[in-house]
Design brief:
With 184 residues, this protein is of the alpha/beta class. The chain is built from 6 helices and 6 strands. The strands form 2 sheets. Strands 4-1-5-6 form a 4-stranded parallel sheet, with helices on both faces. Strands 2-3 form a two-stranded antiparallel sheet.
């Protein structure tokens, strides 16, 4: 059986960017990404920013993620730049990433997040979990209607990032996929 995919967003789950700006969360280190360091902030109109982007990361998260039994995959606006800036701090190997192409930041009239369709397409029926801070019930409904496999959309509070309970939820979901289905 293939390991399930774990789609990882950076800003929110790994980088609790909405935490009090003067108070770095316990266990986190500060990474300064130079202007134009590869995030899609330029696309959001932040290209005039002179100071480096502040990113808080917890180096312990890498080990915890690797122990979950998933195939890890970046699902972030950082795309391939997550391998350059985020993975080394977390102790992660180079990971595949979802290339959002023209869908990047494109609002949908139906209210579904712009990442949702590309993630379902990337998974192609394979079981997956997706950790992000921007999912809604509309995204869950879309996955249920368009994905022909198990899918867990797990919301992470961008003020606090991933916590032990989040890792337990992800481990429980992966473990549930190993359980043979009862036949009746």
């Amino acid at each position: 059986m293939n390991r399930p995919l774990l789609f990882l967003d950076v800003d929110g789950p790994l980088n609790p960017y909405a935490a009090q700006p003067e108070r770095r969360p316990d266990g986190y280190i500060t990474l300064r990404v130079p202007h134009g360091g590869g995030t899609s902030d330029e696309h959001r109109g932040l290209s005039s920013r002179r100071r480096p982007l502040r990113v808080w990361l917890n180096p312990e998260h890498g080990r915890s993620l690797l122990q979950l039994g998933y195939e890890l995959c970046w699902a972030t606006t950082w795309m391939d730049k997550a391998n350059q800036w985020i993975a080394p701090v977390l102790g992660l190997p180079e990971l595949p990433f979802v290339d959002f192409g023209d869908a990047l930041f494109q609002d949908r009239p139906d209210g579904i997040h712009w990442k949702t369709g590309p993630l379902v397409d990337y998974a192609d029926g394979r079981a997956f979990a997706w950790v992000d801070d921007e999912q809604s019930d509309l995204d869950q409904a879309y996955v249920a209607a368009h994905h022909h496999g198990p899918g867990l959309l797990h919301h992470v509070n961008p003020r606090i990032g991933l916590l032990e309970d989040d890792f337990r939820t992800l481990a429980d979901f992966a473990g549930s996929l190993d359980t043979p289905q009862a036949t009746g």
